[in-house]
């Protein structure tokens, strides 16, 4: 559905300092039909720029791509007909009624009024918007508006839809609801979905496959589980009497594959390849030495650990820095 090779985009910096921003630095992408791919990266990583290139809104400075079977550079119109694009802010007119927005959007894609009305009714049903057709857009909740944005992106029945940060600004319940809808659309209609996100939980919950971008370059790709498996092992945190912590640490150190050991008060922390396998052995050894375990936690690796392993930075920290900037 998407094949991109060496996509690049440079921007000329405005102002007195001038210079260039190399926003995307040679991106290769392959997305198969029916896949739900998450494009993950911190603020400023190049997600939106890549998406805008793939959706013909921005010309690449270098590289080639085929999107929905059409060449991005020689047949941008063909690409536009075959894709849906749901931008971050959406593009709805606040005063217009939901039904009118849907019909207008259909007509922009040269659908007949009757077809646009019928498709609008169908999408309103699928996206839980039925009954809201006569409401002005400005009266919708945040979640309803995002679902309307998605319906608008799907009015012409594209085989591929791009969603730019679909759940940004939604409360947790509306986010979970939106995810359900995205999953259902994919399952029911076999649509290929390419979505950008800087939310780790969103990427984890939705994507068959993740492509991680940082500093304009792809730094990793794979299923969420495969990426997590690249982080070596589970983090284990054992609580014991502070007076026995050094002895407990000595025991933990002898566990097969134990690393990154640290002791703080009565907390002994380390990594092992499999926390669930190491724990019974640790318990037996502590017991044999008369050390009582007061608490234990096993942390499976998260996508943030993956990001940290890949880039040396935490995605969350990169995010916070981005927001503060
Ligand atoms: N029109 C532009 N002119 C100059 N620089 C730009 C322009 N658009 C993007 N950039 C720069 O390119 C880099 C990548 O931006 P982009 O919006 O693609 O990142 P992103 O990963 O989508 O971030 P976000 O999550 O904040 O949307 C940033 O450094 C940004 O400032």
Automatic annotation (TrEMBL):
The keyword Transport is annotated on this UniProt entry: yes
Entry keywords, A to Z: Antibiotic resistance, ATP-binding, Nucleotide-binding, Transport
Signal peptide span: none
Main location group: membrane
Compartment(s) where it occurs, according to its Swiss-Prot or TrEMBL record: Cell membrane
Gene3D superfamilies for the chain: P-loop containing nucleotide triphosphate hydrolases (3.40.50.300)
Annotated membrane topology: Peripheral membrane protein
Domain ABC transporter: from-to ranges: 9-240
Record-linked InterPro entries: AAA+_ATPase, ABC_transporter-like_ATP-bd, ABC_transporter-like_CS, ABC_transporter_ATP-binding, DrrA1/2-like_C, P-loop_NTPase
Name of the featured protein: ABC transporter
Organism: Amycolatopsis bullii
């Amino acid at each position: 559905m998407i094949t991109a090779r060496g996509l690049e985009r440079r921007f000329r910096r405005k102002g007195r300092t001038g210079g260039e921003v190399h926003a995307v630095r040679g991106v290769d992408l392959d997305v198969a039909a029916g896949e739900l791919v998450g494009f993950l990266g911190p603020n400023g990583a190049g997600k939106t720029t890549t998406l805008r290139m793939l959706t013909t809104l921005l010309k690449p400075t270098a590289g080639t791509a085929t999107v929905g079977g059409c060449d991005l550079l020689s047949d941008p119109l063909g690409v536009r007909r075959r894709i849906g694009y749901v931008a971050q802010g959406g593009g709805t007119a606040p005063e217009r009624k939901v039904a009118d927005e849907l019909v207008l959007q259909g007509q922009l894609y040269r659908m007949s009024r009757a077809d646009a009305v019928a498709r609008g009714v169908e999408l309103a049903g699928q996206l839980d918007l039925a009954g809201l057709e006569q409401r002005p857009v400005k009266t919708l909740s945040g979640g309803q508006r995002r679902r309307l944005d998605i319906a608008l992106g799907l009015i012409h029945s594209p085989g591929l839809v791009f969603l730019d940060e679909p759940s940004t600004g939604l409360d947790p319940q509306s986010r979970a609801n939106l995810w359900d809808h995205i999953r259902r659309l994919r399952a029911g209609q076999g649509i290929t979905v390419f979505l950008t996100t800087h939310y780790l939980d969103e990427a984890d919950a939705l994507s068959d496959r993740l492509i991680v971008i940082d500093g304009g370059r792809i730094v990793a790709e794979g299923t969420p589980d495969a990426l997590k498996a690249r982080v070596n092992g589970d983090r284990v945190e054992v609580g014991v009497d502070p007076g026995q912590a050094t002895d407990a640490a000595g025991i933990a150190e002898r566990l097969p594959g134990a690393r990154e050991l640290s002791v703080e008060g009565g907390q002994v922390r380390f990594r092992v390849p499999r926390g669930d396998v190491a724990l019974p052995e640790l318990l037996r050894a502590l017991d044999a030495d008369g050390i009582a375990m007061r608490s234990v936690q096993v942390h499976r690796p998260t996508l943030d650990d993956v990001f940290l392993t890949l880039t040396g930075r935490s995605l969350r920290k990169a995010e916070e820095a981005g927001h503060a900037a």
